[in-house]
Amino acid sequence: MRTGIIRGLTAAAVLLLAGCSGEQARPPAKPVYDLPAREVRPDETALHLPPAVNGETEFSVIGLAAGLPSLTGSHTEFEAKGRFVRLRLVVTGKGVSGIVFDTRRQQLVTDAGAVIEVDNQAMTIKRQPDKFELGRGVRVEFDLYFDLPKEAKPLVLRAFGGPTLTDMKNLTGTDIKLA
Question: Any signal peptide, and if so, which residues (predicted)?
Answer without folding.
Answer: 1-25
